[in-house]
Write a structure and sequence with these properties.
Strand content: 5-15%
Helix content: 25-40%
Number of strands: 3
Order of helices and strands: HHEHEE
Strand order of the largest sheet: 1-3-2
C-alpha cells in the first residue's frame, strides 16, 4: 500500500484488485476523516499463519483457511481502539467500505460468531 508499511518497514501486500480498491478507499477515508487508514495486517503467507496459530491458538484461523492467505483481507489496529465498536472510523468503514468492495463480514460483526472489529475482507 502506498501510504503505509508495517512496524519493521515492510510493505503491506494484497491481491492487485484488492490493493487498488483499498487505495481508493483510503483516499476517501482520508478526505472524510482527515487521516490515512491505519493497517495492522494484510496478506499472510502460510508460514506466518502457522506461527500465528501456534502463538494465539484458536484466536487465529486454522492455517490455510484464513482470507489473509488469499490477499483479500486487512486488519486495522486493535489497539489503541480507534477502530473499535462505536468509533467514527469503524462506522465510516462499515458504511462506505462496500462501495469500494471492502466489507466487515457478518461473522466479524459485534453480534457475529467471532466478533473482530478490526477485520475487513475484499469482495469486489
Amino acid at each position: 500500500m502506498s501510504w503505509t508499511r508495517d512496524s519493521r518497514g515492510t510493505p503491506f501486500y494484497l491481491r492487485h484488485d484488492a490493493a487498488a480498491a483499498l487505495e481508493r478507499l483510503n483516499a476517501a477515508f482520508r478526505a472524510d476523516l482527515g487521516h490515512d487508514l491505519a493497517l495492522d495486517l494484510t496478506y499472510r503467507d502460510y508460514d506466518t499463519q502457522v506461527a500465528m496459530r501456534a502463538a494465539l491458538g484458536s484466536v487465529a484461523a486454522t492455517p490455510g483457511t484464513s482470507s489473509h492467505g488469499t490477499g483479500l483481507a486487512i486488519d486495522v489496529p486493535e489497539l489503541p481502539c480507534e477502530y473499535g465498536w462505536g468509533t467514527a472510523a469503524r462506522a465510516w468503514l462499515v458504511e462506505h467500505g462496500p462501495s469500494y468492495g471492502w466489507v466487515s463480514p457478518s461473522w466479524a460483526r459485534q453480534d457475529g460468531s467471532n466478533p473482530e472489529y478490526w477485520h475487513y475482507e475484499y469482495r469486489g
